[in-house]
Amino acid sequence: MPFDHSDGLRYYQFDIFPRNVLNAVFTRHGGISPEPWTSLNLSISVGDDPTRVAENRIHAFNALGRNPASLHDAWLVHGTDVIYAEEPRPLDQPTQKADILFTDNPAVSLFMRFADCVPLLFHDPKKQVIGISHAGWMGTVKGVAEVSIRAMQEHYGSNPQDIVAGIGPSISVDHYEVGEDVAAQFREKYGSDSEQVLQSRDGRIYLDLWTANALQLRAMGVEQIQISGLCTACHLDDWYSHRAEKGKTGRFGALLALV
Prior knowledge:
Layout: E1 3-6, E2 9-12, E3 21-26, H1 50-63, E4 71-72, E5 82-84, E6 100-103, E7 109-114, E8 118-124, E9 129-135, H2 137-141, H3 144-156, E10 164-167, E11 177-178, H4 180-190, H5 194-197, E12 198-201, E13 204-207, H6 209-219, E14 224-227, E15 252-258
Parallel strand pairs: 4-7, 5-6, 10-14
Antiparallel strand pairs: 1-2, 2-3, 3-15, 6-9, 7-15, 8-9, 8-10, 11-13, 12-13
């Protein structure tokens, strides 16, 4: 698997992106947070001390050779709003609410936090645009992958056939049981394709977010897709999982930058 290490940190990297696209999905290793956030927790929304979280974030950026001040992140709300990050976000300003981030500025490091939801990473090598989206079940059924590609088309003039996409570590279908209310929304969204997205076993329904987002991307014309195949609930040694750890856990970070 394409894991790398730097300064005590362990992170996953997609090999579908070219060398000028720095991408890393950080595991939980190498930070200073105590239990239950052990150890590289990168979110202040889960009860951890903000000072520790800030130190973890700075460590992560420094390990990849990125200036921590290059950060542009978002407050995730399980929606489809888009931020076009033309400059880094001043840390003394409030974080905007959105689930899709794009930039074409090499001085910006896009950053998002996850714990079961799907990190979607994008790159258009012709327009030199990158993006990260957050796709939990709510965002997925709202079409966050579709909205992301449409945003690249409308704002940057991207051709979907040029876009490269990575589907990052997140909860797999084997561990993601959902209720009939959620399943009904996916049946309505996907129609005949819902058989690929929903699995029934022993009277229970399981949701495949990897396939669900890949279907959206392909329907939008994206052909170059890499699925990490890493389940957060299966590998608690590496990842935070909100479901497997019953909400008492941290958030891992995904960083994307042009270099």
